[in-house]
Amino acid sequence: MSTASIGMNKHSVLPPIIPESEKEFLDSIHGYIISEIENVGCTKEGPAEEYYVIYRNVFERIIEHVKAYKNILTTIKQEYDAFIEAVKKGQRTAFYLHGKLKVLACESTTLMYYRKRITQLEQNIKKIERNSTRTENLIKKIRTFRTTAAVETTTPCKKLDPSKAIPGSLVSSGSSIFERDHTQATEAADMIEYIERFNELFSRGQYESAAIFAANCPRGILRNEETMEKFKAVSSVKGKILPLLMYCEALVSTSMAVKHPLPANLTVEAIKCALSEKRLELVMYWITQQKLSFNEEAGDVICAYGEVDKHNRSQCLALAQIAYSRCGAHKKAALCLCKQGQISGAMDYIHQLQYFSTDDYIYLVKNCPSVQLIRCLTQEWKGKPAALSLGATVLFLYNTEQRIYSIRLLEDIAKESRNILEQMIINDSNCNVEEWKEIAEICFQHKKIKLGKLLISILTAQDGVLELPPDDDSAKLMEHVFM
């Protein structure tokens, strides 16, 4: 009886009746969750951070909605937030420990590389010591030979008979000639020995030793383009430094040591080699040490690399500017400053030189067109007259691919002040009224009516500057003004 009653009681329990307002609230909560998940692009697997933010906001809405259980739900939310924060902290700790573990795992490899490098340096030191010993022995041989020759040529003084003829100078001069020939022969033998030693190292594939040996040879007998071509012929080996780069580094290093700049032709090849291996920092070091001789080609090579490596373009322009300045290619040095946005610096640089030609200014405008640069060139600069005629520059630009800058220039000046534009037109002795009328017509053609009218008004304001007879073709120009 009791069992049956219990069973009946179980089945007689009715499901909870949810009020309509609560249903609407639950639907809005579900809708909010779905829309937020779609907005942030969450997947079923995560990311957990977005899920946490969404459900935290839902929790807050429920707390605000349910007044009776607000304290309990607030406590639960605080525990929930504390739990999430503990999980985040655990993840950060795990990430940190994982990174630390990687570092510890790499220490053995790093130590191995350091030991390997120590071995290489010790071997290099031994090679240098052997070369030093060999050089000292050669010097001793030369000194011994010179001492012996000096003793042999020394003869005891004899009393001369005044009645005898004075001996001719042919014998003494012949003796000195023989001495010079012998010395030259010894030097030639030493040079041949150096060349043979270099060829021996090179043929064995000991390119680093060969490069150092060639760079340190006396009289620079192996510091030339022929030796460089020999290193060029050696192909690169993966994971090893290019033999040509070894030779270039040795050349520059020895130039720093002996305080003789590397010749310009070898400088160009060294820069080309370093940049082909993407060693811009090496080129930067060489140039800042001021131990290279430059020509225009060296600057061109650096500029060309900057156009390829856009990330380091500004550094390349700065290095190229140094190269151009040192070799006297001043217009290209000024262009590098302009391309870096250093217009004021370029103007100061130009006026320091005092021999920039009109063609040089046109070169800057063509290769780095900008309103700021053109304005600086067409107006006074620190009390010095304008470098270019405003009108002639506008007409020149209009007939090139940079025609857009011709109108922009006039608009920029007019925007600043009508008086400035008027004064620049009056002071422009290289551009006559007819040419300014042509410029105004260009403005009208490009629908710059206001600018064209301004130019016409400036021209007509000058005493006797512009008189248009009725049948003159130029009268058509005024039609734009009175439309």
TrEMBL record:
<dbReference type="Pfam" id="PF13838">
    <property type="entry name" value="Clathrin_H_link"/>
</dbReference>
<dbReference type="InterPro" id="IPR032755">
    <property type="entry name" value="TSNAXIP1_N"/>
</dbReference>
<protein>
    <recommendedName>
        <fullName>Clathrin heavy chain linker domain-containing protein 1</fullName>
    </recommendedName>
</protein>
<dbReference type="InterPro" id="IPR016024">
    <property type="entry name" value="ARM-type_fold"/>
</dbReference>
<feature type="domain" description="Translin-associated factor X-interacting protein 1 N-terminal">
    <location>
        <begin position="32"/>
        <end position="143"/>
    </location>
</feature>
<dbReference type="InterPro" id="IPR017212">
    <property type="entry name" value="CLHC1"/>
</dbReference>
<feature type="coiled-coil region">
    <location>
        <begin position="111"/>
        <end position="138"/>
    </location>
</feature>
<dbReference type="InterPro" id="IPR012331">
    <property type="entry name" value="Clathrin_H-chain_linker"/>
</dbReference>
<keyword id="KW-0175">Coiled coil</keyword>
<dbReference type="Pfam" id="PF15739">
    <property type="entry name" value="TSNAXIP1_N"/>
</dbReference>
